[in-house]
Write a structure and sequence with these properties.
The chain is an all-alpha fold. Helices cover about 60% and strands about 0% of the residues. The longest helix is centred in the N-terminal third of the chain and has 35 residues.
Length: about 400
């Protein structure tokens, strides 16, 4: 502290505030600053990251945030490469093949060397040209339509019922039942299909059980009669005149045949083996429900059915959409059970588009036609998925079904 009788000038005794601020900034940041009078304006210092006479400068790139994007791309790059090599590129090649008459013995991209571009011929042959290709494809579409119509609702209802059962706190041994119900889903589909061949053979366990009650069981894998035809015959209706009209090369009576007896076995097999997987999805959704909502429903005096309809189902709608979507995709792509349990026999009543596409490509060496079948099925799956999403959406939140028109 300066003495009263100190003869030094005041500027030498009291430090300049600007210089003191610059000294503090230098100690904290390690960057030099200019004192007052040297920076150009009184009390103004040069601070890192800010221009002396302008706005704040953009911070240099790099650091942790700057490297996160690079690290993220490095992590996903292997999967992108794998999907590109084994999914995206093969799909593009298959789409190209569907517009050619490639027979598999030359390069599909070497035009004029056994491969020619035929445009939409492979697609039009499936719908507009009389012949075995259209007959088989339309029969496979009809078979799969009834297959999807029965499998998807039944496996969804069964999976939801099993989930509600094993999620109940009153059930003892819930872990055992979850494992038991899920076990068929992790077992090889080929192995289970082989077991079902023995169970439903003419002298198998199923017919032996039916014989115990005096019922003569059918020849399951040799009976091509449709279940709807059997029902019509039971009431005296057999190929009437009103069912003789042709639709895409098949009579209306053929379209109304329903699933055959052999296809019924496949339907039973698939429902039993897939319900366990969908059960786990419903269990995850049920366990995520707020306990307060269930308690409020109980205080309001709702019954079990009212709680399921007005509380549980609306809150697990995303899981319901997922299960139905996966069910649609899986059923329209059914292949391994068909391949093991008859390859379309009897009389083509268990043909599926996936198996027919395989047979057309690798059996008849008509890869263009087989690829066209696959892409037609793909479009069917996309359309059905969009329709069921539209139906599961609340009316006030629905968007136009296919992006055309709709509410404003």
């Amino acid at each position: 502290m300066a003495r009263i009788d100190d003869d030094r000038p005041l500027a030498d005794v009291v430090p300049d505030p600007g210089a003191r601020a610059g000294q503090v900034a230098t100690e904290v940041t390690g960057a030099p600053t200019a004192p007052t009078g040297q920076a150009g304006q009184a009390g103004q210092s040069v601070v890192p990251g800010r221009h002396r006479d302008g706005p704040r400068a953009r911070p240099p790139r790099g650091g942790i945030r700057g490297r996160e994007g690079i690290a993220g791309w490095m992590f996903v790059a292997p999967m992108i490469i794998i999907l590109g090599l084994f999914l995206v590129i093969p799909i593009g090649m298959a789409l190209w093949v569907s517009f050619t008459n490639w027979q598999g013995n030359t390069n599909p991209f070497a035009l004029g060397q056994g491969t020619d571009v035929v445009g939409l011929k492979n697609y039009t042959d499936l719908f507009a040209r009389d012949g075995l290709t259209r007959d088989n494809f339309m029969q496979s579409i009809g078979n799969t339509f009834y297959y999807v119509l029965l499998v998807v609702p039944l496996q969804t209802v069964l999976a939801l019922g099993l989930a509600l059962l094993v999620n109940s706190a009153r059930l003892k041994g819930r872990g055992f039942f979850r494992t038991a119900f899920y076990f068929p889903s992790v077992t090889s589909s080929i192995a289970i299909a082989t077991v079902f061949l023995f169970l439903f053979s003419n002298t198998g366990v199923v017919n032996a059980f039916l014989g115990f009650f005096g019922i003569d069981g059918p020849q399951w894998f040799n009976d091509s009669r449709g279940l709807l035809h059997l029902a019509f015959n039971a009431v005296g209706v057999d190929n009437p005149d009103w069912a003789q009209g042709q639709i895409l090369g098949r009579s209306l009576w053929d379209w109304l045949s329903g699933p055959s007896v052999a296809m019924f076995v496949v339907i039973f097999l698939v429902i039993w083996t897939t319900s366990g997987t969908f059960m786990l999805m419903f269990i995850a959704a049920l366990q995520d429900l707020p306990v307060e909502v269930e308690e409020a429903a109980a205080l309001d005096g709702t019954t079990g059915w009212q709680k399921l309809r007005h509380v549980t189902l609306p809150m697990i709608k995303p899981a319901l959409f997922l299960v139905i979507t996966l069910g649609l995709i899986g059923t329209w792509q059914v292949f391994d059970q068909i391949y093991v349990m008859g390859k379309g026999a009897p009389a083509g009543t268990t043909l599926s588009p996936a198996f027919l596409s395989y047979q057309q490509s690798f059996g008849n060496f008509r890869y263009g036609s087989g690829a066209a079948m696959a892409f037609v099925v793909f479009l069917i799956i996309v359309v059905l998925t969009r329709v069921q999403r539209y139906l599961l959406t609340d009316k006030d939140e629905r968007k136009p079904l296919f992006g055309l028109g709709g509410r404003k």
